[in-house]
Amino acid sequence: MPADTAASLRAVVRQWPRLPVLVKDTALAVVVAVLAFVPAISHIGPEIGDLPRRDAGAVAGLVLTLALCLPLAVRTRWPAVCLALVGSAFAVGQVLGYPDTFGKMGLLLALYAAGAHLARFHRRLAAAVTVAYAVLAVVLHTLGAPARFLDYLAFYLMMAVIWLAGTGVRRWRAEQAERERLAAEVATSTERARIARDLHDVVTHHVTAMVVQADAAQFLLDTEPARAGDGLSAISDTGRRALTELRALLDVLEATGDNPVPDRTPAIGRVSDLVEQARLSGQPVEWTEEGVSRPQPVDVELAAYRVVQEALTNAIKHATGQPTTVLLRHGEEHLEIEVTTTGPATAPVAPSGGRGLRGLRERLRMLDGDLVAGPRPDGGFRVHALIPSGSAA
Q1: Taking the CB of residue 14, how many other CB atoms lie within 10 A of it?
Q2: How far is 390 from 303, CA to CA, in rounded Å?
Q3: 95 near 129, Cβ under 8 Å?
Q4: DSSP structural state of residue 326
Q5: d(Cα 140, Cα 49) in Å, to the nearest integer?
Q6: Which neighbouring-strand residues pair with 267?
Q7: For the purposes of burial, counting CB atoms within 10 Å of the CB of 341, is it exposed (0-12), middle (13-18) or buried (19 or more)?
């Protein structure tokens, strides 16, 4: 086979699943019709009557053959109509003793199509086919067909197996579609939960920082007016950061898949920005980073960023002005994050943490990580997280 022809056939095979149903069914009908006129395979086809052969004439033979093949063009859209037309042509050919033709394979294809594509009234159609076949068997027996009862039964069972094969495929497709629908719902729910957690983290952190900075600026207006401008600048910077992250989340919500969404996911490298923002809010924060930073998956970097963000938010809310330390340690197998606040809390903090800490535990659990948060024995609060690094994952 020439290389160009082989390449063309491979291209057709690759594109076949994407072609419209009507085009594929029409192509199948044409192929069966063409093969029906090939002498080498003209004798292949289902046969039950075995009545003496009659010379049907060229025109009658052509009409009968086309009636067996061409209805296959609508076997997916109207499977019952297809089966009725092909079945009637098959029955006429058996009763009149027309010569064998490959076109009789259309009966088997129509039976399979009825089982695979007829979603409604398939039981009624099966009963109608059974009755029609019984009538055909009686007529053939009356005309002197040599077939016996077991022959008719075997032929019927063959048709039933083909019908059930199509039915099995239809049920499998329905179950597959249901599994895909459920998987899409789970994915949608998971994504909604993730976006809800991110919204909580972004809004809580930035709004808390802005409230603290606004209180500090108001205080400075009365005591040190010259420094009040720094506080107002800090509020402006915090608001811009909040808008940037909120826009990124809205881009994800509005994404349709046609255009790539810009990547604005906070990374580990931006943890220092969180520390600086907390300092601008008046929180004394000591920042330490140990180990060699390595490229990490997006989920790992975002989880680490959110842990520091939530811990600093709680420190600003519940331990305003208390010394806070942030430690980020890059290990071979884990990222370790520890945020501690010393001194008594200015507002009560539940040991189990709020919604943000619960969300962080769930996020880290999905990454096979762990988060522990609670008060320290000597006062203050501690948040400790272990996140498997990219190499461990």
Answers
A1: 9
A2: 13
A3: no
A4: E
A5: 6
A6: none
A7: buried
CB 335 within 8 A of CB 329: yes
Share of the chain above pLDDT 70, in %: 75
Check pLDDT > 80 for residue 29. yes
| Cα–Cα distance, 258 to 392 (Å, whole number) | 34
DSSP at 218: H
Question: What does the alpha-carbon distance between residue 253 and residue 57 come to, in Å, rounded to a whole number?
Answer: 68
Q: What is the pLDDT of residues 243-260, one digit of tens each?
A: 777 776 666 665 544 444
Which residues are within 8 A (CB) of 335 and not within 5 positions of it... i.e. 6 or more apart?
268, 296, 300, 304, 328, 329, 385, 386, 387, 388, 389
Write down the H helix ranges in 225-270.
225-254
d(CA 276, CA 21): 61
* Mean pLDDT calculated for residue range 141-164: 89
Q: What is the DSSP letter of 343?
A: S
Whole-number average pLDDT of the chain: 78
Q: Is 38 helix (H, G, I), strand (E, B) or coil?
A: coil
Q: Measuring CA to CA, how many Å separate 163 from each of 58, 66, 149, 253, 276?
A: 32, 23, 21, 45, 71
How far is C-alpha 128 from the chain's CA centre?
Answer: 40
CA-CA distance, 128 to 113, in Å (whole number)?
A: 16
CA-closest candidate to residue 322, choices 350, 284, 349: 284
Closest CA to 47 of 103, 5, 110: 103
Structural contact between residues 206 and 242, judged by C-beta atoms closer than 8 angstroms: yes
Q: CA–CA distance from 58 to each of 63, 67, 99, 106, 222 (Å)?
A: 9, 14, 11, 20, 109
**pLDDT of residue 157 exceeding 90:** yes
Question: Distance (Å, rounded) from C-alpha 302 to C-alpha 385?
Answer: 13
CA atoms within 13 A on the CB side of 345: 19
Give me the amino acid identity at 313.
T
